[in-house]
Design goal:
The protein is α+β, with helices and mostly antiparallel strands. The chain has ten helices and twelve strands. Strands 2-5-4-3-1-8 form a six-stranded mixed sheet. The protein has a two-stranded antiparallel ribbon with strand order 6-7. Strands 9-10 form a two-stranded antiparallel ribbon. Residues 192-245 form the HNH nuclease domain. This is HNH endonuclease. It comes from Paracraurococcus lichenis. Keywords: Endonuclease, Hydrolase, Nuclease.
C-alpha cells in the first residue's frame, strides 16, 4: 500500500464525485492500485474545468480519503474508478507550496523551480512523511485550535502524552465531528443559512451548528457539501424532517407538523443562504436524500 495524490477539478473532466469515487484513465492504474487500502489526498489544480483557458482552482490539497477498491468503467473503455471511504474535508486548503517549501518534494526541480512534468500527472505517489505534513496543515484549526468550538475532546491530553500519527486521529469520530464543524462554519461564515443570524458568544464560540444533510447514520460523508450551518432550533427542525431544502435551495416546511412557535422563526426564510464558493454548496444528491428519507412534508 502506498499513499497518493488524486487531482480533481472544480468541474471535473472525468466522472469524479470525490466523496465516493475518483475516475481516471489506464495511464494511472498502477499508481491507483498501489493506494488500495491506504489513504490519499485530493488536489485541486488551477484549471477549474477541461477548458485549457479555465482558471479559478485553488492549487491546493483540500481533503483526504481512504481507497477501498478499483473497478473498471463499464461504459468507457480503458477507464477506471477508485472508490473511497472516510472522506474528510480539510479545514484549511493547503497550497502546493508555502514560500519555497513544496509539500510534495517530487514537484520541485533541483534548481528550486516547479517540476511541471511531475505536476502534470493526475495521480502521484506520496511519501508517508509528506502525507502527514499535508494533513497537519489542513487540519491545523482542529489540531491547534484558536477557537473553543474547534476543540476535540481529549486531543490535548493525547498530544501531551505522545505524538500519534495524524491518520489515527482522523479516523476517530470526535476528530471528524470537530473537523466537519470547523469546515462548515468557515464555509458559511458562522452564519445560520436559514435565518441569517451570526451570533458569537462572549467566549468566542459561534452559536451556529454544523448539520449533516444526509445523516452519518445513513452513510452521510463528512464533507462541506453534505453540511449546512444552522442555529440550534433550525438544526433541530432539520434533523427531524420539519424543514428541508429543494433543488433550487428554497426552504420547504412540513406545515402540519411545525410547532406554532417555530413558524415565526421561518416567516422570512425563503431560500438557503449559500457559501460564496460553488464547491462548498450543498450537493443535490444529499439534498435529495434528505427530502426523500428525512423530510415529513
Amino acid at each position: 500500500m502506498v499513499k497518493a495524490v488524486f487531482t480533481t477539478k472544480v468541474n471535473p473532466t472525468y466522472d469524479d464525485l470525490p466523496t465516493f469515487r475518483y475516475h481516471f484513465p489506464r495511464t494511472y492504474l498502477n499508481q491507483a492500485r498501489a493506494a488500495v487500502g491506504d489513504w490519499i489526498v485530493y488536489y485541486e489544480p488551477r484549471r477549474s474545468s477541461g477548458d485549457e483557458d479555465s482558471r479559478g482552482g485553488r492549487q491546493a490539497y483540500f481533503a483526504t480519503a481512504r481507497v477501498t477498491t478499483i473497478e473498471p468503467d463499464e461504459v468507457r473503455p480503458d477507464h477506471f474508478y477508485a472508490f473511497v471511504t472516510d472522506y474528510l474535508d480539510f479545514d484549511l486548503p493547503v497550497t502546493f507550496k508555502a514560500g519555497s517549501h513544496y509539500f510534495e518534494s517530487a514537484l520541485q526541480r533541483e534548481d528550486g523551480e516547479t517540476n511541471k512534468g511531475a505536476f502534470g500527472r493526475a495521480v502521484r505517489s506520496l511519501p508517508e512523511r509528506e502525507f502527514d505534513s499535508i494533513l497537519r496543515a489542513g487540519f491545523a484549526p482542529v489540531l491547534s485550535p484558536a477557537r473553543p468550538d474547534f476543540v476535540v475532546p481529549g486531543l490535548a491530553e493525547e498530544q501531551e502524552a505522545f505524538e500519534r500519527p495524524i491518520i489515527e486521529r482522523v479516523t476517530k469520530r470526535s476528530f471528524r465531528d470537530a473537523a466537519f464543524a470547523a469546515a462548515v462554519k468557515t464555509a458559511y461564515d458562522d452564519t445560520c443559512a436559514v435565518t441569517g443570524l451570526r451570533l458569537i458568544n462572549g467566549g468566542g464560540r459561534a452559536e451556529v451548528q454544523a448539520a449533516h444533510i444526509r445523516p452519518v447514520a445513513s452513510q452521510g460523508p463528512d464533507t462541506v457539501r453534505n453540511g449546512i450551518a444552522l442555529s440550534g432550533t433550525i438544526h433541530w427542525m432539520f434533523d427531524r424532517g420539519l424543514i428541508s431544502i429543494s433543488e433550487d435551495y428554497s426552504i420547504l416546511t412540513a406545515d402540519r407538523l411545525l410547532p406554532a412557535g417555530a413558524r415565526g422563526v421561518l416567516t422570512l426564510a425563503r431560500s438557503l443562504r449559500l457559501p460564496a464558493r460553488p464547491e462548498w454548496r450543498p450537493h443535490p444528491q444529499f439534498l435529495k436524500h434528505h427530502r426523500e428519507y428525512v423530510f415529513k412534508g
